[in-house]
TrEMBL record:
Protein name: Uncharacterized protein
Comp. bias intervals (Polar residues): 60-73
Region described as Disordered: spans on this chain: 12-82
Species per Swiss-Prot/TrEMBL record: Meyerozyma guilliermondii (strain ATCC 6260 / CBS 566 / DSM 6381 / JCM 1539 / NBRC 10279 / NRRL Y-324) (Yeast)
Compositional bias of kind Basic residues: 25-35
Amino acid sequence: MTVYQQGVPMEGWNDCPAVIPRPPMGKRKASRSRRVGMDRSPSTELPAPTAAETRLKLGSTDSLGSLMKSQGSEGEVLDSEKLEELYQNSSLSDKDVENCRKRIASLRGHERFVNEIVRRSQHEQAAVLNQYIVDYMTTNENVGSACLSLRKLVESQN
């Protein structure tokens, strides 16, 4: 039990805030124009916004940069042979592999990205691929659970 539930008075816990006196209306309007940054002249313009730098350089030489902009084409299919090799070489349990299969198969329209990750997993470090997967997840909607499964699969390679 807390102090107020026990009925013991506690100083200041439910006091009203102190009233702060305000100057009369005329003085407030006069002092407003003297504040810094309140210059109302039309000659001052706001500076143009600068482009924010992205974590993944889209103009980079690797093909994953272009994958971030465009999703898989209509005729693109998953490279099932290389994907099957990933499943076989993983240290995941059979139940986890089945979960990964279902979720990765649900990535309709993103086959090109999955194929590129599978292809690169043979010769690149998992940390680099994980960063690409996370960046792809942040730029595309409704790919979260499938990309997490893909990431788990990449991390579990022997």
